[in-house]
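Q: What does the assembly look like in three dimensions?
Context provided by user:
Components: two
Sequences:
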Amino acid sequence: MLLDLEDVSKSYPTGEGVLQVLRGVSLSLDAGESLALTGESGSGKSTLLHLAGGLDRPDSGAIRFEGKDIAGLGDVELAAFRRVSVGLVFQQFNLIPSLDVAANLAFQARLGDRYDAAWSEWLTERLGLSKLLDRYPEQLSGGQQQRVAIGRALAGRPQLILADEPTGNLDEATGDAILELMLALMRETGAALLMVTHSNRLASRLGRRLHLAAGKLG
Amino acid sequence: MLTQGFAVLLSHWWRHKLQFAMLLLGLALATALWSAVQAINGEARASYARAAAVVGQDRLEQLTTADGTHIPQESYIALRKAGWLVSPVLEGEKRFGGERLRILGVDPITLPADAAQVDVGAADIGLARFITAPGVFIMSGETAARLKGVDTPPIRISDALPPGTVLTDIGIAQQVLDAPGQLSRLLLAPRQPTEARPLAEVAPGLVRRAPAVESDLSRLTDSFHLNLTAFGLLAFAVGLFIVHSAIGLAFEQRRPVIRTLRALGLPLRTLVLLMVVELLVLSTVAGLIGVALGYGVASLLLPDVAASLRGLYGAEVPGTLSIRPSVWGLGLAIAVAGTLVSAASRLWRIATMPLLAPARPRAWSLASERALRLQAVGGILLLVAAWLVVQFGSGLVAGFSALGAMLLGAALLLPLVLSLLLKLGERLSKGVIAQWFWADTRQQLPGLSLALMALLLALAANAGVGTMVQSFRLTFVGWLDQRLPSELYVSTRSNDESQKVHDWLASRSDAVLPIWNTEVRMFGQPVQVFGIADHATYRDYWPMLEAMPDAWDRIARGEGALANEQLARRQKLALGDMIPLEGGHKLPLVGIFSDYGNPKGQVIIGVRLLETLYPDASRLRYAVRIAHDKAPKLAEELRATFDLPEENVVNQTTIKDFSLKIFERTFAVTAALNVLTLGVAAIAIFASLLTLSGMRLSQLAPAWAMGLTLKRLALLEILRSVALASFTMLAAVPVGLGLAWMLLAVINVEAFGWRLPMHVFPMDWLRLFLLAVASAIIAALLPALWLTRRQPADLVKVFANER
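A: Here is the predicted structure of the complete assembly.
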């Protein structure tokens, strides 16, 4: 098993008290598997994704990656985990605006010392970004930016890709094309995918789906 | 509608308290330094005005000799007998203890009512006591305090007199100043009898002079005050960068609100008006805080300024400040004007913004390269303008204009220079983090450029003024060695004692060199005339700037004169030009010497000629040449033999130390203003980093998500600040050198009348560099610390869809 969440809970303090976002959630994901996480706004989908990616820590429960509990790791170990094992794709793209496309694509792979020029070139070609390498994020369309974000996530060949509404900012046709591309690349690299989405249509295209409501899996 | 709109605008500050604090702080600090300088200048000018007003000089016509020499008492008597309503005044300087005082002798009986500031008939003085020995010394409380324990005639206090001035009876003054039968000028009563005989007939040597509206002191010190004002303006400009930056950010952040307000029906004109009112309120509050702070700064700086003015010009300024409405008015006006100028472009943008313009804040980071280039072109044009003014302009105002254009030009050019340097860093770096670091730093540049421009100005001012002061110091120390080669300097108390001391020393030393002098009016200004003996001491050491080959021989023969640099520059004198002396006697100029720190013109002639032309010249001082190791014993014997006070026999080292002390105090104000300006610039960086830190989160979060720890990111943030400060310092060195050159070669020559050679002091730059780096670290520390304390929840919000 690649990823295993067991009885995970998470809450946040708010102005009106403590907001319980996740209540004893358990799920697992195998290598190469794709899983869609659906639910209403505020159901805790993104929080669950962040916990799985080591961006945040749960209040209770265990999060195991290849059998190792990452919930108890320190900042430095968690950062190393993110560098090497996880690729992230967000709705807002979150590219680094000061770097051009080439540098953005290579950023995480080089950060984790996993940069492979030949693989990177293949990936760039596959994503149709070869002619855009010297452009900056602000000079790209939304679809182009998301392709860069996917390339960045895959450049270091991570075992797990976490995608938070990756097509949420795109029109339907572009979104479909992007998702298709992402799934094809997953199959080619053997990475597992955990994707958060509002859309049942998109969720149905993934291998498995789970629904989250009021912090619990339905 | 107005109230609602205004409340919405103000709510921005409620939610951005730090930004609000920085805006107020920036404006208050800028106003504070400006107001401090104004308060100091105001105090000094009021003091000069009081000095000019003493015995009605600023209101009454006077009779003087054409060449400024003394008037014989007989002329006064003749005039009185001829029906002229004149009153005699004798003015001179005399040292009491360690204090040099300006003695003003008047005749209370004939003194016109317009000139009588002090009622000598008042009970605590009494006319009889005033005019009979030992007389009465009337002076300000501050002067009296300085004379505690010193032997003087009885003292009475009157605060109508400026510090350092003593009013006494003319007879007492003649005794004290050792000038029997001599008068400096005669005051003319406003109404003269019509039947009085013509002046030319009664006293042919005398001429009428109009009331002296502006005193010599006021004229002499103009340049000093202009220097201070320039510094105040510079500090204000540096402070305005903070204001501009804070207002700019606030306006950008409020674009969506402004669009919404307009969409909801608030007319654009009303909105702009409300924003102007908001700025007026803010600037008035900050201005009031600033002026109050300014008074605090001024009261701290005033003692040093007073010491500078006394050391440089012999001008007395009180050590305490009075509250002046003009300082408050001007302080508030400049705070309001500065704010409106800083906000003008933003207001214009709001006023011309279409209702449906994108509401997303156009963060500074999106400022285009084109704008950077346009700004750089403006900078280059200003630098060219500065060069043209230096080449073709003249006068102090032209000098300061060139200086201002150069500084502003360099500041405008800075962002482009930094951008190029950072691009180079990006190209040269290999590692992914280094590459991102340089690229990201370059992206922060537009947001930080105003603060960095402020830092450039402060660093350049520090480097430039530091270079000027150190060059001056080096030259001054060398010059002191040349100017003070004798081992001992002796001051006697009377002509009789002077002769005895001379005779006593003649057989006990290698040489006794008279330092005899008098003060006259020459070329319409006060000039000191010194007589010197023909001796190798002068031939070997005197600090000549240019001289005829046989200059010393001609002086020895009484056929030539030397002039100091400032007199030569002021009068545009060249070697060979004629110097007018007493009784129509003229001598060719045979040499020009450097005379730093002396505001007055000085002429040197042979001592025998001085005795002939100026029989009343003071003959009280001598320089003594003797083997260095024998000097202390001789000084001791001399004091014992003639019962001379300690300070009347001083060795070379003491005088040099004293001169250097005056020098150091003179530039203490400059140093203080330098540090304060640098402090304001550091606050500008701090303010920018602090306000940007909120916007930084969305830029740093992706890097954090991809595996950089917060500690590492925080360290990089500090390094970024250090890198920018270091590059700014690199840019500040040439600007500082340019500034130093302009100060030494243009401003000083215009202001003081002397030109100094420029030296460079790399160790000072290194110190300044370390100071800049320290400021940058301190400024970045707090935002960096905040970053390390961020919770993951704050950072993941950046990626959250609901955001």
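Follow-up: Chain A has a mean pLDDT of 90.
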